[in-house]
Amino acid sequence: MEKAGLYLHVPFCRSKCPYCDFYSLANGSFIEDWLDAILSEMVHYRERFGPFDTIYLGGGTPSLLSESQLGALMDALFHHFHMDPQSEITIETNPGDLTAQMVKTLKKMAFNRVNVGVQSFNGGELAFLGRRHGPGDAVEALSRLRTAGFDNLGVDFIYGLPGQKMVGWLETLERALSFGPEHVSCYQLTIEKGTPFWRLKEKGNPMSLGEKKEREFFEGTSDFLRNWGYVHYEISSFARSPLYVCTHNEKYWHHVPYLGLGPSAHSFLDGRRWWNIRSVRNYCRVLKSGGAPVAGQETLSREQMNLESVALGLRTLKGFDRAEIHGSLAWKNLGDLEEMGFLRCDETRVVPTREGFLLAEHLPLYLCE
Amino acid sequence: MKNIRNFSIIAHIDHGKSTLADRLIQKSGLVEERKFRDQILDNMDIERERGITIKSQAITLPYVNAEGEVFELNLIDTPGHVDFSYEVSRALASCEGVLLLVDASQGVQAQTVANLYAAMEHDLEIIPIINKIDLPSADIEKVKEEIEVDLGLDSDLAILCSAKEGTGVEEVLEAVTELIPPPKGSRDDPLKALIFDAHYDSFRGTIISCRVFSGKLNPGETIRFMSNVATYKVEEVGIFRLVREPKKVLSAGEVGYIISGIKTVSDVRIGDTVTLETRPAPEPLPGFKEVKPVVFSSIYPISSDDYQSLSEALEKYKLNDAALVYQKDSSVALGVGFRCGFLGLLHLEIVQERLEREFGQSLIMTVPTVRYQFILTGGEKIWVNNPMDYPDPTTIDKGLEPFIRASIMIPERYMGVVMDLCLDRRGVNSRFNYPSPGRIEVQFDMPLAEVVYDFYDKLKTVTQGYGSFDYNLLDYRESDLVKMDILVNAERVDALSQIVFRERGRGRALQACERLREEIPRHMFKIAIQGAVGGNIIARKTISPFRKDVTAKCYGGDITRKRKLLEKQKKGKKRMKMIGSVSIPQSAFVAVLKSETR
Q1: Residue B593: which pLDDT band, with cuts at 50, 70 and 90?
Q2: A284 phi/psi in degrees, rounded to 5
Q3: Mind listing the pLDDT tens digit for each residue in A340-362?
Q4: Do A312 and B569 count as a contact with CB atoms less than 8 A apart?
Q5: How far apart are the CA of B565 and the nearest CA of chain A, in angstroms?
Q6: CATH class of residue range B372-479
Q7: Range ranked top by mean pLDDT from B54-58, B209-213, B471-475
Q8: Positive or negative, the Cα torsion across A308, A314, A316, A318?
Q9: What is the DSSP string of B450-472?
Q10: What architecture (CATH level 2) is domain B4-179?
Q11: How are beta strands A272-276 and A266-269 bridged, if at all?
């Protein structure tokens, strides 16, 4: 069985970005309480989950933690859980936090993969996205990381902004490619409910490019990066070679067990998924009183497992394994979808074409009736 | 018998009939104030919501007049819609008088006139009542003039009343006892009772509502229906209070009920005469006729697995609605269902709503149609009420369609738009009556099919709600009738076919295509929607495919949320019908009937 993934949610940011709906606080006064709490949550799961071969510090903004906070976190992880020596250990960072000192700190610790939230190399776009760093910060950060010897870098971008031109977007990408990142994530802007961007949209502001342009941007991005030799292995993810796919994220997409620690984190094991309390205060309170900070859980029925296998699998280049699907699937539609150019099938697997990627949200509806 | 009064209230929709009925019941002291539920006589949800009475009902009210004399007042409620005009006529036949209710601000409407004529035909005493005098827009003098001129009644006799506030109700009751004559007829003659309503009770079977004209009836006797000579043993007779109140005997002049182990209301015919097996009446009461459906549509379950359940629901529903007729039907597109006949469009909507609401059915109804007649080249005459039965066009000598006489009452200023509407709907032989200054009654002969097709909605729109409408069937007239088919990705959807007047073909086809384009969600491929007559495509619309629907992120936390969204969409898709690989939502089958997007 594949080894599990370990996710830590750092629910703090220096400022909130108007498009983001991940849970985080722009107020750091709970960091120490949170750290105590997450350390005791680890105790709760020791001996009960693992072994692991990936760690992912996400958020929020993990790079705003101090050296001692990061150190305490990583020490505890290795103390409580069985980690594979070859583990992929990722930290998400904000370019503005990656000072020379911070890069040194990360290098000293076990991190072997750094993900940088560049988002754009255009100052105007960064301002629109409410980012606190400028284009220059990202350039410096990436140079520092390379100089420090990090050989597995990921960069994140948001594209398809209202009014954005394809040329400008490709310039941003080109600039990133000058650092030869091992991994590039390109997220097309999605307006999530409850965010400031959502409210702008509700008020009638044009917040998207429209379906036709979005499609062009998606295709343009894919063409551009594939031309540079990248593998478009998931809707929004590109790897410089198959070696550099994000092993941790892949676990989410293929029902491999994962443990999520921290407020609002989700975990999955043996067909069961559970999720933590969202509020940092309540999360801390529950753990302090010795309880489990779980807010809810579900056990997936066979039908739900199938639906997820298909829906998640078709977002990735691997597709899904036919043997994974138990019971009935609308196999008759499979042929139609293949004929229409959305899928390719062989004896064992069903994989999406790029046309399939574009309509990945729809395909499961035809396959799981 | 001299202290019995049988009467009915007739009014245009919304003129306050139910509210007045409620007040009369309240005044009689039959029900305690605090238990009073508004609009007691309308006991179905839909009636309450739509504010119309679908089935007639009766109630016997005790009343002591100013002189201390005790009366038994039988109030027979009547349905207030043109679809149910036969029921109205039978209810009126059971009365000696009517309260003619006119809204103080809206004045006399088409239905008021139609109802008045019906009451006059039965030679009833008519008491005009001007209701809603509390409204700021009330114009009592004008309404009095209309009563005088339009209706030819003595407006000095009109009682001013506000049923809502309770003013004038006492006067109404006094007028009922003073002006409406007591029933005639001898209890020693052979039994003659007129059936004016029947409803189903799950414990007792069919409850017959009737008015006894002569003779008397005791439990234990055997009754005979004079139309079909069926006989039944009477289990119970009684009168209607708020609940049924059994009595030892029901005799001439009275209004009450009969329970005699009849399983479904379909075994009982409204308007039929009940007599005794042992001593039958020589001839029935006049006016009985078989009610024939005029509008037809097929009902299909959304999921073909639910056919059995729909079949059972219809059977149960039918227990209480003798006017609905149905038989098994099947369609390539929709599977197995039922072809149903209705009294009119409102009746159709009521059946649909009740099947969905009370019986939990998910339905698809096809385009309503009228009954056409075709004379084939061989001279054979056939009736067609289902587009699927449209004969081979080469064998048709001529087609005929039913015509109605429509009567529309409007304020003068809407004359132009209503004329346009009627001419557009192939109206001919127009006549105009000017019942009072400022008001016009427009009469047209029109094909019924044109009325079935969204005429009410249109009339309401162009007259801003001031137009009222009534109709009766005239005859069948020759017409050039073709079958218009709808194709979705080249596949014919038989359930969407319509028989139309040839010149209407293209317009209807375009409309249907347009509605379908709005209703069918985009798919992963292009969808062509076409309208055709014979082999010719006469209309076409396309639905462009999705270009991109994928969202960027999907991590741990999103997976449950994403799956739940998919599950919801899957459920939605299940409620659609698959035509080839195109999913057509239920709403699309209904939408093709609407001429414009609302």
Answers
A1: low
A2: -65, -45
A3: 899 999 889 999 999 999 999 88
A4: no
A5: 10
A6: alpha beta
A7: B209-213
A8: positive
A9: HHHTTHHHHHHHHTTT--EEEEE
A10: 3-Layer(aba) Sandwich (3.40)
A11: antiparallel
Residue A101 C-alpha, separation from nearest chain B C-alpha, in angstroms: 31
| Total residue count of chain B as it appears in this document | 598
In a 3-state reduction of DSSP, which class is residue A298? strand
Q: pLDDT per residue over A51-66, tens digit each? A: 999 999 998 899 999 9
Q: What is the CA radius of gyration of chain A?
A: 21
Which residues of B106-243 form beta strands (DSSP E)?
125-131, 159-160, 192-201, 205-214, 216-217, 222-225, 231-233, 236-240
Parallel, antiparallel or unpaired: strands B439-447 and B396-411: antiparallel
Whether the CB of B305 is below 8 Å from some CB of chain A: the reply is: no
Q: In sequence order, what DSSP letters do the residues of A173-216 get, joined into one string?
A: HHHHHTT--SEEEEEEP---TTSHHHHHHHTT---S--HHHHHH
- Residue-range domains of chain A with CATH: 4-252 (3.20.20.70), 302-367 (no CATH)
> Which pair of structure tokens corresponds to residue B289?
């006729």
3 state DSSP class of B266 = helix
- For residue A365, the chain B residues in CB contact (below 8 A) are 566, 569-570, 573
Q: What is the ipTM of this complex?
A: 0.91
Asked if B580 contacts B488 with a C-beta cutoff of 8 angstroms, the reply is: yes
Inter-CA distances, A53 with A189, A200, B198, B249, B407, Å: 31, 41, 77, 91, 83
B258 close to B250: Cβ distance less than 8 angstroms: yes
Regarding pTM above 0.90, the answer is no
Tell me if the domain spanning B192-276 has CATH number 2.40.30.10: yes
Question: B563 to chain A: which residues are within 8 Å by CB?
Answer: 304, 307-308, 311
> B255: closest CA among B268, B244, B266?
B244
Local structure of residue B386 (DSSP, 8 states): S
Provide the CATH topology of domain B482-591: Alpha-Beta Plaits (3.30.70)
B474 dihedral zone (left: phi>0; alpha: psi -120 to 50; beta): alpha
CA–CA distance, A26 with A55 (Å, rounded to integer): 24
Which residue's structure tokens are 């039907």?
Answer: B329
Cα A342 versus chain centre, distance: 25
What are the φ and ψ backbone dihedral angles of A112, each rounded to 5 degrees? -120, 5
Chain A hits for B560, CB-CB cut-off 8 Å, are 266, 273, 275, 298
- Measured in whole angstroms, the distance separating CA B357 from the mean position of its chain's CA atoms is 17
Q: What are the angstrom distances between the C-alpha of A232 and each of A198, A224, A357, B322?
A: 29, 10, 10, 66
pLDDT band at B32 (very low <50, low <70, confident <90, very high): low
